[in-house]
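Sorry to interrupt, but I need a hand with the structure work. Leave the record below and I will have a look:
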Amino acid sequence: MMQAATVARAPSRRTRTAPPASRARARAWGFGALGLAALAALWELYKLLGPADGLVIGEVRVLPRTSDLAMPHIWETAGRLFEPVTRAEGARVLWLEVAIAASLTLGIAAAGWIVGVTVGLLLALVMQRWRLAESAALPWIILSQTVPLIAFAPVVKSWGSRIEIGAFEWQDWMSVAVIASYLAFFPVAVGALKGFQSPDRLHLELMRSYSVGWWQTMRYLRIPAAVPYLLPALRLAAANAVVGAVVAEVSTGLQGGIGRLVIQYAGQASGDPAKAWAPILGAIALGLIAAGSVALMGALARNYRRTEDAS
């Protein structure tokens, strides 16, 4: 009888305990919300206690001024999102204007991400296949990320405007997509290469003992082993693509995107400081959406993502 009672109580004990995945997900959301609350509290605390002229060391201002012009209150910025952009009749609500601009930038960043991921994977395949290619290309891949985008974006636009193939005509948004892919390919190339080289020597020797070719080894061994390295690289590439798209919009003068909105509203900050922060918040949300979308795509590879390499 006691054993039967114990068995009868066991299901109720399991129902009260949340699955480990659910607890981890809830903990992640909780820490994320706590981080946002801590950031908002730190903002308001510095605004309350910080020096009016900001923190100046020598002749360099390390922290900003605490005036309402430089640092509006969190609630003022949030409230401004639900007000019209201008006082003109029929003007859109500010958050809707930011969302429309962000959707354009997101589409361009997505195109750049796809191109960057494709190029990064191809480079990783070539470098894994031939050791000479790795020695020759990897230093240049790393060196490529030291080029300042502010100077590089106008050059890409100038080159692209000269491309004419039949009826095809280069569009300004394509230059922005190229810059986005330029930042996106790097983490994919490095992460995929490390993942392709991660299988144990014992597994590789087993493949050789069965006379398995390079492509079959890549398909059945190296690619599954690279998934824990690829998922963080793809998320980082998505965030980089957004950053590249925003910076390129500013440098190339593309209208309608969140980058131009940042410049446009920054010029109006003296009369409406809370408004200037709206596109900045939109760009932050855009990066989170891009990285989160790639994280959802990673659910398709859940059979291979026992662990994810953070390096």
Q: What stands out?
A: The radius of gyration is 25 Å. Confidence is low (pLDDT under 50) at residues 1-16. The chain has twelve helices and four strands.
